[in-house]
Amino acid sequence: MAELTLTLKLPFYRLNAVKAAEFERLTAVNTEVANDLLKVEKSERKKLTSAAFKHIEIGSAWINQRIRNTNAKTRVKKFKRMWLETNNQNYEISRSGNLFAVAFNLLRGRKGRIPLEVHHASHIETLEKVIAGEAKLGSIKICKTKKGIWYALISVSMEVPDAGQVKGWIGVDRGQNNIAVAALPGGFGKFWKGGRVKALRRRFQKLRRQLQEAKKLRKVKQLETRERRIMRQINHEISKQLVRFAKDFGLGIRFEDLSGIRQTSKQRKKTKSDAAENRDHWAYYQQEQFTRYKAIGAGVPVESVPAAYTSKSDHRNGVIGKRVKHWFTGFDGYRCNSDWNASQVIGGWHGFACPLNLQKVVAAMAMVDSGDGVDDSPLTGEESKTVAKATVLDNR
Questions:
Q1: How many Å from the N-terminal Cα to the C-terminal Cα in the chain?
Q2: Radius of gyration of the chain (CA)
Q3: What is the rounded distance in angstroms from the CA atom of residue 244 to the CA atom of residue 191?
Q4: How many Cβ atoms sit within 10 Å of the Cβ of residue 100?
Q5: Which candidate, 195, 377, 199, 177, places its Cα nearest to that of 279?
Q6: According to the model, what pLDDT value does residue 276 have?
Q7: Which of 380, 355, 366, 346 is nearest to 168 (CA)?
Q8: Cα dihedral: 235, 239, 241, 247 (round 10)
Q9: What whole-number distance in Å separates Cα of residue 384 and Cα of residue 374?
Q10: What does residue 148 show for φ and ψ, rounded to 5 degrees?
């Protein structure tokens, strides 16, 4: 069984002005406590408990959580705002009819119950599992949006069945012109274009430059936060559609392993100066992480394969071809979309085997069952070089 952890964002149902004002006041008190903790030496701060804050009206469990969170922040000099938070031992979820509610003792000696708004069917299903004991509650945090809406961030973990056997794999090629391309085995591909993202990157870059020239550094930070939120939402949408796409066809998802690409891939100065083209701004890892945790809940297996030669190999036979921008050309003149071709190679990956002789037309993927082959990406390991040399001698 695999463990799935979710964070539910649930607004409070018809929260009146009195309770909203109380949340605002207690959040300010909580922030003051956190800033007072920063004034204490680190060695002494770790020894503190809620007993040192008996004069504070906030419940002891919330104070203890505040102490733990403050100790975890090692480089902060002052907190602007610290939201109220506690662990799973100090609140509970209940249901009355169609209405869910959360009960907690935010004030010392007083326990209140506040109804929640639940719009998503998946959230309702998760909360029902919590009440039935099939899921375990984590921490709860009380926050407020910029529009003044108070909500509860509730962490929930549960065990889900391991992904079963699949009849094939959907290869996912990621890039900047196309954020993601997912192709069915030997079939059509689903494209998520990158034009919108590039336009957003350039627009925010221009605004940042203008704000920096005007010395409005606080606005620059706000703009960066907004940009991250937009990109995070885009990645959420893509990952959700990708998992649904794989589940509808009963297939697994394969990514190319792009770890370390920022260190290994070179970029021109002109490219790095353009936020739309700079790979340092490419949120490919976040997209994969979102897809993985959504796939766990959907029972869709996800795996990674080596990225070497996936963009240069022909999906029909594994022969090294030529890729120029949006087009891939095989040795026999066959042409297709380069990203679609790469996604087909990733989905049909069986383990490239060496030797791979680049001076001759060799089908790398056809040599998987070679007796002398070593499961590896072409020319990426010492074993590959050794086997390639031995094969050349045998051919003589």
A1: 53
A2: 27
A3: 14
A4: 21
A5: 177
A6: 84
A7: 346
A8: 180
A9: 7
A10: 90, 15
Predicted pLDDT at 351: 60
Q: How many residues does the chain have?
A: 396
What's residue 247's pLDDT?
A: 93
Predicted pLDDT at 365: 41
Environment class of 235 (CB within 10 Å of its CB; exposed 0-12, middle 13-18, buried 19+):
buried
| CA angle centred on 322, ends 391 and 282, rounded to 5° | 105
Joined tokens for residue 131: 């009440």
What parts of the chain have a pLDDT lower than 50? 352-396
Angle between helices 284-298 and 217-249 (to 10 degrees): 40
pLDDT of residue 394: 44
What's the CA gap between 7 and 236, in Å, rounded? 14
In DSSP terms, which residues pair with 99 in a beta bridge?
96
Query: Element (H or E) spanning 244, and its range?
Result: helix 217-249
Q: Give, to the nearest 10 degrees, the angle between helix 17-38 and helix 60-72.
A: 50
Identify which of 132, 122, 156 has the alpha carbon closest to the alpha carbon of residue 6.
Answer: 156
Torsion of CA 126, 68, 71, 78, to 10 degrees: 80
The answer, as to whether pTM is greater than 0.85, is no
- What burial class does residue 93 get, using C-beta atoms within 10 Å of its C-beta: 0-12 exposed, 13-18 middle, 19+ buried? buried
**172-181 as b/e, with b when 16 or more CB fall inside 10 Å?**
bbbbbebbbb
Block residue for tokens 């590896």: 376
Residue 151 Rama label (left phi>0; alpha psi -120 to 50; beta):
beta
